[in-house]
Amino acid sequence: MLSSRLLLSSSLATLFIQANLSSGFSTTSPLVQSTSNVRKVLPLFATDNNQNPFGFVQGLLSQQKGTAVAERNSTPAIPDCVVDSDYTLAAVFGAVGLGTFLVGNVFTFVLGGLLILLATLFAVQASRIRFVFDQDAFELKNTSGGDDKQEQLKDSGENFVVGGANRWAYKSFINWEFFPKGSPIPILVYFKENQTIKPDGSNDGQIHFFPAIANCKQLEEQFEVRGCAKIRD
Fold it and tell me: How far is 59 from 46, CA to CA, in rounded Å?
């Protein structure tokens, strides 16, 4: 009786296993089956032995620093400047010369005529000479004519007093000033530089004077912004 029951149980177990296999059920344990469907999740920060776990934050900081340096390096240079002509000096000399000329004696006639000639010279120079500031130097150039937007600038040649080009590096400046000092209508533009070599071979400083035929406010601003040396009182 007992052997019959064991035989029956064994047959039922065999039938159950066959039924499971024919129905496509896996005999793999539920634990293994569930773990086989787990997806691999990549860590946000690398933590292996060769990498810093805070590398992501350091990378962000490095990018921000690099951006700041790039912005500083891309700061635009000071644009070139052509100073506006100024006919004030010519007008003042012309008015004073005419008034003196009309006084009526020989002395005032000669003096008045001389002042009118100077006024004419200043007007002509103001119309054809330009004071130019580029990235490296201060230069005097001639204009070929036309209006302010279409005029062509060209080299003014050698300085007729001391020789050499009419171009002086900003770093060569020793001093600059307008005369008379503090006057609302300057007459002369003065500067001293050590770029020009003197006949004796020295370069302890060459003095230059020009009539104030350009906008002196703009000249002063450019001398300042370009870092031209000045002896302060």
Answer: 13
Q: What pTM does this model have?
A: 0.65
Distance CA 145, CA 84 (A): 14
Joined tokens for residue 218: 């703009």
Q: What is the DSSP letter of 192?
A: E
Tens place of pLDDT per residue across the chain (233 aa): 444 444 455 554 454 444 444 444 444 443 334 444 444 444 444 444 455 555 544 554 555 555 444 444 544 689 999 999 999 999 999 999 999 999 989 999 999 999 999 999 999 999 999 999 999 999 999 997 666 566 789 998 888 888 889 999 999 999 999 999 999 999 999 999 999 988 787 888 999 999 999 999 999 999 999 999 999 87
What gap in Å lies between CA 231 and CA 66, rounded to an integer? Answer: 40
Helix, strand, or coil (residue 196)? coil
CA distance 129 to 82: 10
- Give the bridge partners for 206, in sequence order: 193
Tokens 């130097």 belong to 137
Contacts of 216 (CB under 8 A, 6+ apart): 86, 178, 186, 189
d(CA 203, CA 155): 24
